[in-house]
Amino acid sequence: MRRQRRTMMITAIIGILIYSFCLFILSQFVKQDQISHLAALKNDYQVLKKDSHSRSLASWADDHQLTIVTDSNHPRTIRQQQVHDALHQNQLDNTNPYHLQYFRGKRYLLYLLDSTSANQQRVMVKHYQSVWQHSNLCGIFSAVYLVLWLVVLTIQYLTYRQQRRYLAAIIQKLQQIKDNEQTDSLIAKDNTPYTTLIKLVNELDQDHRHQLAANSVLKRRFQSLMGHLPVGVMLLDEDGNVLLHNQMLAIMLGRQISEEKHPFVDDIQTYALSQMIEGTLRENRNHRRNIQLYGDSDRYVDANVIRIAHSEEDLKQQVIVILYDLTNIYQLEQQRLSFINNISEKLQPSVIEIAEEAEELLQEKQFQNVSSLENIKNQAHNLEELLEDTIALNKLDQEENLLPDHVNTADLIHTALTKQQSGIKKLDLQVQKQINGNKWVSSYQRELEQIIQNLISNAVKYNRPHGTVSITLDHNEVENYLNITVEDSGIGIAATEQKRIFERFYQVDPKQNQGTGLGLAIVEEAAQTLNGTVKLTSKLHEGTKVKVHLPL
């Protein structure tokens, strides 16, 4: 609207400028007409001068409203002074016989007639009539010009008003399309500047209707699919608000879930699952764990929290939570684990007793075949270690979602080193330990204990004589994470073997008869339980470095 007003204002200014220019041209025509009229009167004067006396010339001059002035060196009247100045200032001569002169606020047209003597010249003096004094001519021109320009402004205004109507209709239709409202097609004349735009808007409206219909069908199919899925599904935005869910998820959680957008913490009461979701939102990393859902359902599920993004540059992301019901499988698994645990616990005292008996017999030195007895003792120790690792894995598999403990990491390191003291002395190892930050952390003690014990045990067991073991704990209380790094100068692991070292019971060199092949499997299981990661770097014959990152 402002632009249209500004355009009309510019049009009016241009009209005024054109009007002024036309008046200037018209004034030039009026001036030239009066000069031409004086030139004709000069010819009449020359004729009358020969045949008439001075009284007739005076009468003729009065009839044409002009004055004939003779130049004098001593002008007596105002007109003589006026003529005398014009002649002696070379404003009038034979080459330029006319001159327009202002005198006392009025304009006079002077025209040179002839010379009465060598020094006397005659000049016609006539009052100059400007274009405004020709009232009829000026009035007719102004009226015609004003009418024409008013017609132009009226046409412009009507055109703008019609354009505003088209724009208002187009804006209203686009707003209706945005609001998914039913709209009617726009109709416009073929000669308007908005015809192409209106056709495109109508086509956009039709495409939008088809898209809405297709989306409606897809939405019904998706809702039907979500309703029949045997797994629980929840979709979250980048702020952790629930965008959609299916009925199976509500059944698994044992809660009525609102259809409105709301924080996920209103529905999920299980601490472990909440930590998985928070970790994915914060670290952009997927998580998967078998957990028990607390609440009205008490189900065991395989929980997957997955980050969804179109590209790495996307700042906005979505997170999908998928829960597989493992309650029946978990019950069977618990029976299997209980069976293995019972056997392990019953075998463990017998194996310990065999090892102790073999140690006593070796000390008494009553047997000649000492190597066989030594082998019995070593095998008993290996079996004891295997049973301990099996029991530890069973406990990790039977993990319950309790609240985290307040754990002293320095004590865990000290306990693990105490257990490995004999191996450290045997290989004469140098142990370096460093704790950065607060030694107290909020986590699960059983998992942390298994991670630290197995990492230190491997660093001692597979080290070289006179080697080193470096233990570093970094507790970052600002970003709230714990890094556990154990590095040794041992035999190392070949690059071809590093892909399988986290498999249960896998040993790089079974002939060495060291370990059970469960140590790193226990470390990875415990780290995954804490939503952490394990990274191993190793070079053959140079040593191994294992770093465990745990969000707290």
Automatic annotation (TrEMBL):
GO cellular component, one term: plasma membrane
CDD domains: HATPase
E.C. code: 2.7.13.3
Pfam families assigned to the protein according to its UniProt record, in alphabetical order: HATPase_c (PF02518), PAS_8 (PF13188)
SMART domains: HATPase_c
Histidine kinase domain ranges (all copies): 342-552
UniProt xrefs under PROSITE patterns: HIS_KIN
Subcellular location: Membrane
SUPFAM superfamilies on file: ATPase domain of HSP90 chaperone/DNA topoisomerase II/histidine kinase (SSF55874), PYP-like sensor domain (PAS domain) (SSF55785)
The keyword Amino-acid biosynthesis appears for this protein: no
UniProt catalytic activity: ATP + protein L-histidine = ADP + protein N-phospho-L-histidine
Any one GO molecular-function label of the UniProt entry: phosphorelay sensor kinase activity
Protein name: histidine kinase
Organism: Bombilactobacillus mellis
Lineage: Bacteria, Bacillati, Bacillota, Bacilli, Lactobacillales
